[in-house]
Design goal:
By secondary structure, the protein is an alpha+beta fold. Helix content is 36%, strand content 24%. The strands form 3 sheets. It has an 8-stranded mixed β-sheet with strand order 4-3-5-6-7-8-9-10, sandwiched between helices. Strands 12-11-13-15-14 form a 5-stranded mixed β-sheet, with helices on both faces.
């Protein structure tokens, strides 16, 4: 991680908010890795999601670092909720992919985003287990370990690579028929999940990533990362919103066609759309 940060700083003049978020991500990553190598308690929250001591310690460290660097900013985090300003706030997931983390599967990351007047303007994604470091800021592009990221130029659905998260989640959310249409229309499908799916699309290695049952901290930095890489990110209804529970990331060229294929069953049949209120 230190090497990735040095390389990023060397090649790019970092905005102060980016530098602060990178520092916070590094500190949180070190805490998570230390816990991951040792013993820690694993519990389930009321919403059945998994939480560890590492999640809580990492979020505390992030808040402390960002609080010093950006006085007056508020926070919205997975472990400690909303605090302070909602007009300009940091959105934090200290460990995205906690279940992978617990099982020592190295597909998890620290997620940090800055939201200003309802728009995500900066995001950092760091996987300390692999050394991956991604960041984006509005107007400054998307970056991976110091190199520029760009979505693919694939314009044909029949050639597209589809990535998805939990299939049971897509089924429970009422999108199964649409997802089947999407599977039939694409060339290849894999279930990488969590932060990784978005980063693969942003890097131009796949064209489509779809997942549901999300909270804003799961996707906040992904929005700016995908958009600054030249892609498009919306919910399954086509709304560019991180608060509705579903999320579709594409290279942009295929987005409208994917939305058409995903279109859920008529209103009144099955479950209502998931919403999150912050």
């Amino acid at each position: 991680m230190d090497e990735a940060l040095r390389e990023t700083s060397k090649r790019t003049a970092l905005h102060p908010t980016v530098a602060a978020a990178l520092e916070a991500a590094r500190a949180a990553g070190e805490i998570a890795m230390k816990n991951n190598r040792g013993g820690y308690e694993v519990t389930n929250k009321d919403d059945k999601t998994t939480v560890t001591q590492a999640d809580r310690e990492a979020e505390k460290a992030i808040r402390a670092i960002l609080g010093r660097a950006t006085p007056g900013c508020g926070f919205l985090g997975e472990e400690f909720g909303q605090e302070g300003s909602t007009r300009r706030r940091w959105i934090i997931d200290p460990i995205d992919g906690t279940k992978n983390f617990v099982r020592h599967i190295p597909i998890w990351a620290v997620l940090i985003a800055l939201e200003e007047d309802g728009q995500v303007t900066m995001g950092v994604v760091h996987n300390p287990a692999t050394g991956e470091l991604y960041w984006a800021r509005k107007g400054e592009g998307a970056w991976a370990n110091g190199g520029r990221m760009q979505v693919s130029t694939c314009a044909a659905m029949k050639d597209a690579f589809l990535i998805h998260s939990g299939l049971n989640i897509l089924r429970a959310a009422g999108y199964w028929a649409g997802f089947e249409r999407l599977v039939d229309a694409t060339a290849r499908q894999r279930g990488f999940g969590d932060y990784y799916g978005y980063c693969v699309v942003a890097a131009g290695k796949a064209e489509i990533y779809a997942e549901a049952d999300l909270k804003p901290w799961d996707v906040a930095p992904m929005k700016i990362l995908i958009e600054e890489a030249g892609g498009r990110l919306t919910d399954f209804a086509g709304k560019p919103d991180i608060y509705t529970g579903s999320m579709l990331a594409t290279n942009g060229l295929l987005h409208d066609e994917v939305l058409r294929l995903l279109r859920r069953h008529p209103p009144g049949i099955g479950e209502a759309p998931m919403e999150w209120a912050g």
